[in-house]
């Protein structure tokens, strides 16, 4: 006889574990199925984000940035730090310790909230039954009144660059290098490629990033993207646009990349090659043929605005459904669905999901880009303010970047906020909150900001929408 739960969540990533905890907090008998094993072969929670994604990559980004600061920038502050070196193995060990602490933390939260954990692979059967196959191959069935699918995504592999252990790796493998490669190639100039490329460039690698598209960061506001490319190139990243990788060849401990660009066929030789060309929804062995859940043409589970699938009582959230593949988007969807299952009214504002690229400077945005507004024929006004005019940015020795606010020409409602600069990932929350409450640019302009702070750059950008920025020459004034 199978166990029966009010809610069963398949997947314990940032969408799944949050959904499970929320459901349990609302008094629902909840279970969560997770198959992830850590390096030691032990079951852990947290999914890609916590184990081989968001958290470990930020640990390496932070360590490598502090290394560059100490080696190249401390002297500007009057700090003498000679013979600075990086212990890569210790850096990786610290990253692993952080991941371990957080995965144990989720296990403790499950226990504290009464979530039953099943270790193994979950498969949705007809009638909202879930088949769980543990790591020994033993199978059991559990039943649910409601099912939340949160199976996440996996890296996309490409035929021209098949993964080869130790030489051609995906984003997970790039977090495990135990020494700095002298020559590093990265396929894909998206979020992951730029972050990982930045880590190893800071530590001494000669990094080349191949991007098949002719434009850089096409989904980012192009004024911000242009500034980002200039800054990252200045830092030493070689960004090859319009460069399509056609094949790879392994010769001993080297990888030869064959690619084409506007000038024809070319080759480049690397010690390591990272493949970062995107991610795809993970649905392998997830759904029985008679489960009734529909997939779209790209392999995503079809859901409505409240994450309901084609089967009543079955929901899907996170990377396995439409929308940006972001941990925080998955978490908020998990909370929304748990609330709906518990009988509450809940919805999510998909127009207010922030995006962050954790290079230095960070790149963050929410809402529409200037290009999108032009394409949609929306009349808008723009306010831009540079970090170079910020007293706090000068004090921090971090004057690169700008904040940009786009507002509706008639209503002044904020349509988009875009920031490149130190701590942009923290500062973008101002834009998210403002847009969530339907604020105007004037609302931000009339807000009292603490001085001196980096956030004053956002304040001045809001003032600049009307041509009233205080700390720069005004180029326009609102009539």
UniProtKB/TrEMBL annotation:
<feature type="binding site">
    <location>
        <position position="319"/>
    </location>
    <ligand>
        <name>FAD</name>
    </ligand>
</feature>
<dbReference type="InterPro" id="IPR050151">
    <property type="entry name" value="Class-I_Pyr_Nuc-Dis_Oxidored"/>
</dbReference>
<dbReference type="GO" id="GO:0005737">
    <property type="term" value="C:cytoplasm"/>
</dbReference>
<keyword id="KW-0520">NAD</keyword>
<dbReference type="InterPro" id="IPR006258">
    <property type="entry name" value="Lipoamide_DH"/>
</dbReference>
<dbReference type="Pfam" id="PF07992">
    <property type="entry name" value="Pyr_redox_2"/>
</dbReference>
<keyword id="KW-0274">FAD</keyword>
<keyword id="KW-1015">Disulfide bond</keyword>
<dbReference type="InterPro" id="IPR001100">
    <property type="entry name" value="Pyr_nuc-diS_OxRdtase"/>
</dbReference>
<feature type="binding site">
    <location>
        <position position="278"/>
    </location>
    <ligand>
        <name>NAD(+)</name>
    </ligand>
</feature>
<dbReference type="InterPro" id="IPR004099">
    <property type="entry name" value="Pyr_nucl-diS_OxRdtase_dimer"/>
</dbReference>
<dbReference type="GO" id="GO:0004148">
    <property type="term" value="F:dihydrolipoyl dehydrogenase (NADH) activity"/>
</dbReference>
<feature type="binding site">
    <location>
        <begin position="325"/>
        <end position="328"/>
    </location>
    <ligand>
        <name>FAD</name>
    </ligand>
</feature>
<feature type="domain" description="Pyridine nucleotide-disulphide oxidoreductase dimerisation">
    <location>
        <begin position="353"/>
        <end position="462"/>
    </location>
</feature>
<keyword id="KW-0676">Redox-active center</keyword>
<keyword id="KW-0963">Cytoplasm</keyword>
<dbReference type="GO" id="GO:0006103">
    <property type="term" value="P:2-oxoglutarate metabolic process"/>
</dbReference>
<keyword id="KW-0560">Oxidoreductase</keyword>
<dbReference type="InterPro" id="IPR016156">
    <property type="entry name" value="FAD/NAD-linked_Rdtase_dimer_sf"/>
</dbReference>
<feature type="disulfide bond" description="Redox-active">
    <location>
        <begin position="49"/>
        <end position="54"/>
    </location>
</feature>
<feature type="binding site">
    <location>
        <begin position="188"/>
        <end position="195"/>
    </location>
    <ligand>
        <name>NAD(+)</name>
    </ligand>
</feature>
<keyword id="KW-0285">Flavoprotein</keyword>
<dbReference type="InterPro" id="IPR023753">
    <property type="entry name" value="FAD/NAD-binding_dom"/>
</dbReference>
<feature type="binding site">
    <location>
        <position position="58"/>
    </location>
    <ligand>
        <name>FAD</name>
    </ligand>
</feature>
<dbReference type="InterPro" id="IPR036188">
    <property type="entry name" value="FAD/NAD-bd_sf"/>
</dbReference>
<protein>
    <recommendedName>
        <fullName>Dihydrolipoyl dehydrogenase</fullName>
        <ecNumber>1.8.1.4</ecNumber>
    </recommendedName>
</protein>
<keyword id="KW-0547">Nucleotide-binding</keyword>
<feature type="domain" description="FAD/NAD(P)-binding">
    <location>
        <begin position="5"/>
        <end position="334"/>
    </location>
</feature>
<feature type="binding site">
    <location>
        <position position="211"/>
    </location>
    <ligand>
        <name>NAD(+)</name>
    </ligand>
</feature>
<dbReference type="GO" id="GO:0050660">
    <property type="term" value="F:flavin adenine dinucleotide binding"/>
</dbReference>
<comment type="similarity">
    <text>Belongs to the class-I pyridine nucleotide-disulfide oxidoreductase family.</text>
</comment>
<feature type="active site" description="Proton acceptor">
    <location>
        <position position="451"/>
    </location>
</feature>
<dbReference type="Pfam" id="PF02852">
    <property type="entry name" value="Pyr_redox_dim"/>
</dbReference>
<dbReference type="InterPro" id="IPR012999">
    <property type="entry name" value="Pyr_OxRdtase_I_AS"/>
</dbReference>
<feature type="binding site">
    <location>
        <position position="122"/>
    </location>
    <ligand>
        <name>FAD</name>
    </ligand>
</feature>
């Amino acid at each position: 006889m199978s166990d029966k739960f009010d809610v069963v969540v398949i997947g314990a990533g940032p969408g799944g574990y949050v959904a499970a905890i929320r459901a349990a907090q609302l008094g629902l008998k909840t279970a969560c199925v997770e198959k992830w094993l850590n390096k030691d072969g032990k079951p852990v929670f947290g999914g890609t984000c916590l184990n081989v994604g968001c958290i470990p990559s930020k640990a390496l980004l932070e360590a490598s940035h502090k290394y560059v600061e100490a080696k190249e920038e401390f002297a500007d502050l009057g700090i003498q730090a000679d013979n600075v070196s990086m212990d890569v193995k210790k850096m990786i060990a610290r990253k692993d310790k952080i991941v371990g602490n957080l995965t144990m933390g989720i296990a403790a939260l499950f226990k504290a909230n009464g979530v039953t954990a099943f270790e193994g692979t979950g498969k949705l059967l007809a009638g909202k039954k879930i088949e769980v196959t543990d790591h020994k191959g033993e199978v059991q069935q559990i039943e649910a009144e409601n099912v939340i699918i949160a199976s996440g995504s996996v890296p996309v592999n490409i035929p021209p660059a098949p993964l080869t252990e130790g030489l051609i790796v995906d984003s997970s493998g790039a977090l495990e290098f135990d020494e700095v490669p002298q020559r590093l190639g990265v396929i894909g100039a998206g979020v992951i490629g730029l972050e990982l490329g930045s880590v190893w460039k800071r530590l001494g690698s000669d990094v080349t990033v191949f991007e098949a598209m002719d434009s850089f960061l096409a989904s980012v506001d192009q004024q911000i993207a242009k500034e980002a490319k200039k800054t990252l190139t200045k830092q030493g990243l070689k960004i090859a646009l319009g460069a399509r990788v056609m094949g790879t060849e392994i010769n001993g401990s080297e990888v030869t990349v064959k690619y084409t660009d506007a000038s024809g066929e070319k080759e480049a030789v690397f010690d390591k090659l990272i493949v970062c060309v995107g991610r795809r929804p993970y649905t392998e062995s997830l759904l029985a043929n008679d489960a009734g859940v529909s997939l779209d043409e790209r392999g995503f589970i079809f859901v409505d605005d409240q994450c309901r699938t084609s089967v009543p009582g079955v929901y899907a959230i996170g990377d396995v459904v439409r929308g940006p593949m972001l941990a925080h988007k998955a978490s908020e969807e998990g909370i929304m669905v748990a609330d709906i299952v518990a009988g509450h009214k809940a919805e999510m504002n998909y127009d207010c999901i922030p995006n962050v690229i954790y290079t230095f400077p960070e790149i963050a945005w929410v809402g529409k880009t200037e290009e999108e507004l032009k394409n949609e024929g929306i009349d808008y006004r723009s306010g831009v303010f540079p970090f170079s005019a910020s007293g706090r940015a000068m004090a921090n020795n971090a004057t690169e970047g700008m904040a940009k606010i786009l507002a509706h020409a008639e209503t002044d409602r904020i349509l988009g906020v875009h920031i490149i600069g130190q701590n942009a990932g923290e500062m973008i929350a101002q834009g998210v909150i403002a847009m969530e409450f339907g604020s105007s640019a004037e609302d931000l302009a009339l807000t009292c900001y603490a001085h001196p702070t980096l956030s004053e750059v956002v304040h001045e950008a809001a003032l600049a929408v009307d041509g009233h920025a205080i700390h720069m020459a005004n180029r326009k004034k609102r009539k």
